[in-house]
Design goal:
With 142 residues, the protein is mainly alpha-helical. The chain has helices at 2-25, 34-45, 48-65, 69-89, 96-111, 113-116, 130-141. The chain has one domain. Helix 1 runs antiparallel to helix 3.
Length: 142
Amino acid sequence: MKIATTAARLLLGVGFIFAGVSAFFISSPPPQPGLAGAFNDVFFKSHWVLFVAAAQLILGVFLLINRYVPVALIVLAAFLYNSFAFHIMVAQSSLWAPIFVFALWLLVALKYRPLFAPLFVPIPTLPDQSEDRARVFRTLAL
């Protein structure tokens, strides 16, 4: 399982680096029919694609160098959600792409499951910070 998780993390990293870098070199994508084409037209002409590409590039690097992986996974979850929404609504023929990326994401995310568990508590308990604050104020007073 460890090899599969590492391979999935590396594939995700390389994939998102490629997606991020390629957007900087594509001035206009090939035309697509229907709403997908209209969406891509606005996406590229407004240069919103550069913002998304920069984020994908940074997150891909995080995954590739194995640093800040939980943060990268949380942000990539938002990208995956948007990718599923786009492919379900306007480009059903390529729905396989976000499914494949989600499978890789899931393999990597399962390794970090204990870190994500506190995010899904309905009413989280905060640690008592009064001692920490008192220590900070004592340090500042000296």
